[in-house]
Please model this.
Amino acid sequence: MSKTFANSIILNSAFYTYYDMDIPSVTFNTTAGTFNLNNKTLKISNASPTSITGTNNSNYFNGGTLQRAINSTGVYEFPVGSFNNFQSATVNANGLMGVSTISATHTQGAITGTAPSTTFTGVAITSALNGGWFSINPNIQPTGGSYNITLKIKGSTNTVTNANRYAVIKRNNSTSAWAVNGAYVLATTDATTVTSTINSLTSFSDFAIGIGASSLPVSLTGFAVKANNSKVDISWQTITEINNKGFNILHSIDGTTFNSIGFVAGKGNSNTSSNYSYNHPFPVKGNNYYRLEQIDYDGKKTMSEIKMVAFNGKEMLVTVYPNPIVNSINFSKFFIPGTSIQIINSNGAIIEQGFINGNSYKPKQLVTGMYKVVVIEKNSNSIFTNNILVQ
Model:
């Protein structure tokens, strides 16, 4: 049986329901206590993020399903705990499309169904907090947008002292594997509660707080490369950093063999977003591939995904002489100051880069072999490439 109410409920004391209920909003007064759902479903029809107010460690829902109407954007808390402990899942919707309601239940105790058995950037996650886990499901899965989710789990008996080992984990259903999806944020702890967040998710399902075998590494987001006149702009962001020495910027002309072209220092340890950038002044004509190698102070390394940018400058008609070269590379064109040159060996590694002023460039040191010369003229963005032989 279901009861629909036109008016909102204000709780002054603990409440117990025998019915599924549909109400606009719920307000917990200071000493209200718990709203026992008795394995029923409570539907909140008002889509405002403030349709539930006054929740705290004593005032919350337990023992059933809490369903909330939502807007495409907004922060919605689902304070659905156990009889003994306040537990909470908060959904921060960012332009979610197609979703009109979200339902949440909390199950007290250790995870049932599949157990965690996954890795995140090399760190094994084979257990989760035993204070409980959440099933969070929309009326339909989103067709666009994303959301962030924050879990608060209280009363676990298997907590660890290092909060950097916690991460929100997710599975599709009780028979699916757990994984870390999205971009995780460093967890926080107090005497009784672990709080952990994951960002940039696009589907809903089961959630728990996993425990890593060691500290989890840097959370990298927003890695992008973009051609900018005769250069390539590289940018990325981190949400969290643990023991982060910095980033090697790697470049490749074939997407397979990468060479370091620079280093950007990290923040060490940080729980706030950080923006980074690097400018590559010597891209080659055609496809340029980039990736980041994140390095911890203890030497541990983590690779990013690979990004590609096509660099299609205007081809110059220039000859090189003599070829084979002896001491210097001479060109049939005078270049303006600031024109860049790269010398690439047969393995695709950039072994020297610099600037030409005039029509000659003297390499620092070249051993016998075949090389590619790439010249990018300043201002005009014109590109010249040629093979040279050193005897």
The chain has a mean pLDDT of 88. Residues 219-311 form a domain with the Immunoglobulin-like fold (CATH 2.60.40.10). The chain is about 0% helix and 60% strand. Residues 341 and 375 are 4 Å apart (CA to CA).
